[in-house]
Amino acid sequence: MRRLPPLSALPAFESAARLGSVTAAGAELGRTHGAISKQIAHLSEDLGGGLFEKAGNGLKLTSRGERLRNASTALLDDLSALAQVLRSEQDERRIDILTSATFATRWLIPRLPRFYRRRPDVDLRLRMSGPQPVPDHDFDVLVSYDRLRALTTDMDGQIIGDTSYGIVCAPGYPLREVGQLWTAPVAFVQAGAPQSWQMWMRLADIEFRAEQEVEHAHHLLALEAAAAGLGVALAERRLVDQDLATGRLVAPLGFRTVPGGLLVVVTPRASKRSTVAALIDWLREEAL
């Protein structure tokens, strides 16, 4: 059975030995002077003392301390290098995807089994986007589809497909044409994107007016409300394909396309990962 010294004290000892100061070691490790001194004293007691001696205002290693410093420095360097390799391997496998809850629920998640059959070694984690921006260091890949917030974007992204937008509602819902104007009793507006209807009218060259606008916090809720016959909603076609196929929703005015509207943006921390490139290739295939 191995009888090891208190390993948690080795970083404090190695730092103090290398820097020649308990205070400097505390600053490097983010610990107080007292905490570093206590760890060194505990280590010294366990090993029979005699690791440091006073040298003016600093510390000097004894011959016993020098031997321990050589061994501990090599050990900590090896552990640090191994930890970096293991973390990079884990980082390579794990991809954090930022996208909207509606896109994830309606389109991305149902397709993920196909991705995992191709790449069972990759661990995809989904993070939902919201009104507050998410810093780059918190995700790897952003998947963006909502061009009705702005028909053009300044995002430095890779195009993986086109997007198409149209009005959807339950069969029989009273969406009517009056002269050159389309009308409906209720239109759902997504919180944070009041301009979406204006953007769609501009894109489709159609005039539309609702007697009442009802705001929903999430696009998914608007689509469900439309399917329940409570009003009309705007939708990107991928998000409602299944509902259109089953007749749960209809799109009386069809869809208008924004070329290159489906984008992925890769953050700097993930830009060189082969697994991210594989994910983007797969997304591009699925988006066809």
TrEMBL record:
MF term (GO), any: sequence-specific DNA binding
What PROSITE patterns would the database entry show? HTH_LYSR
Question: Is Transcription tagged as a keyword?
Answer: yes
Signal peptide bounds: none
- GO biological process entries: DNA-templated transcription
Q: HTH lysR-type domain location, by residue?
A: 5-62
InterPro entries in UniProt:
LysR-type_TF_proteobact-type, LysR_HTH_N, LysR_subst-bd, WH-like_DNA-bd_sf, WH_DNA-bd_sf
Q: Does the keyword DNA-binding apply?
A: yes
What keywords sit in the KW lines? DNA-binding, Transcription, Transcription regulation
The UniProt similarity line reads: Belongs to the LysR transcriptional regulatory family.
PANTHER family in the cross-refs: HTH-TYPE TRANSCRIPTIONAL REGULATOR, HTH-TYPE TRANSCRIPTIONAL REGULATOR TRPI
**Can you say what this protein is called?**
Transcriptional regulator
Task: Please report the organism this UniProt entry assigns to the protein.
Answer: Cereibacter changlensis JA139
